[in-house]
Amino acid sequence: MRAIYPGSFDPVTYGHLDIIERTSKKVEHLIVAVLNNPSKKSVFSLEERIELLKGVTKEFPNVEIDFFSGLLTDYAIKRNCTTMIRGLRAVSDFEYEMQMALVNKKINTEIETLFMVSSSKYAYLSSSIVKEVAMFGGNISCFVPKVVEQALKNKFKGGI
Ligand SMILES: Nc1ncnc2c1ncn2[C@@H]1O[C@H](COP(=O)(O)OP(=O)(O)OP(=O)(O)O)[C@@H](O)[C@H]1O
Ligand SMILES: [Mg+2]
User: Fold this and answer.
1) Residues at the annotated binding site?
2) Where is the Cytidyltransferase-like domain (predicted)?
3) Relative to the CA of 124, which ligand 1 atom is closest?
4) I need a surface site. Which of 55, 61, 65, 116 has the fewest CB within 10 A?
5) Does the predicted model carry a pTM greater than 0.85?
């Protein structure tokens, strides 16, 4: 089976990496697809998010990094892959994820969304929280790989 793991990855965290690693053991090929949404302000550009993801996933031979704009369902058709992977951290993720999965299925009935339950040690982790801690100079070494930590430090070194 091939699968697509879509998201913003702004930036990639250990929470994402955990999902990528665990999923890569269950599928033949995993496409991590970075959403390019110009109307949603991101800290890292699309190129930067892709670069960071490529760097931290290079040890997984069956993981590919790509990007998409617009509808995920259109991208799914383009890549000829109808299995979507999403991570579930807490009950709070469930409502939104359920809505997205049902909307995607409504658009294309072939699409199935599979949920990977977060490892308990990363259940609290999100890109937003990491950026918030980094912005105020907090230690983020247990949340993100070294290259991402450095990239975040560079982003916020001049203050907010
Ligand atoms: N710590 C985590 N454990 C499990 N799944 C996660 C974790 N962090 C993110 N995910 C999942 O990864 C996918 C992509 O998420 P996304 O790019 O929105 O990251 P995020 O950390 O939620 O960022 P943001 O804070 O900007 O929403 C989603 O399915 C999300 O639920
Ligand atoms: Mg999110």
Assistant:
1) 8-9, 16, 40, 72, 86-89, 97, 122-128
2) 4-132
3) 1
4) 61
5) yes
The answer to whether the CB of 97 falls within 8 A of the CB of 88 is: yes
Domain boundaries, the chain: 2-156
Active site residues: 16, 40, 89, 127
- Do 130 and 11 form a contact (C-beta atoms < 8 A)? yes
Tens digits of residue pLDDT in 115-151: 999 999 999 999 999 999 999 999 999 999 999 999 9
Which residues is 2 bridged to in the sheet? 29
Instruction: Using the atom order of ligand 1, give the atom closest to the CA of residue 117.
Output: 4
159 band by pLDDT with thresholds 50, 70 and 90: low
HSE, CB side, 13 Å, CA atoms: give it for residue 78. 13
